[in-house]
Amino acid sequence: MTESTLTPGPSTQEAHPWRAVVRTFVAAGAGVLLAWLARTIGIDLAGLEGPIVDSATAAVWAFITGLVQWLLTRPNLLPFWRSIGLGTGVEKE
To answer: How many structural domains comprise the chain?
Structure first.
């Protein structure tokens, strides 16, 4: 019986670096957009001091960016990401 060994190929980030960059910017952009909305129209933080407002804004940004990044990795959402041009590119290999 012969055993074959699989040779791992490059990661998707190495094989498709611009897709990885675009996906990262999309996640960060979603975080920035929601943080901006939370700061300007969504959450009334007028009674708080500046550093607390900045921290709350940064927390919203971090949460939303992380959430979008997590959503970009869900296998059941990959067909949707592919359809809008945010697929990993691994489907072409």
So the answer is: 1
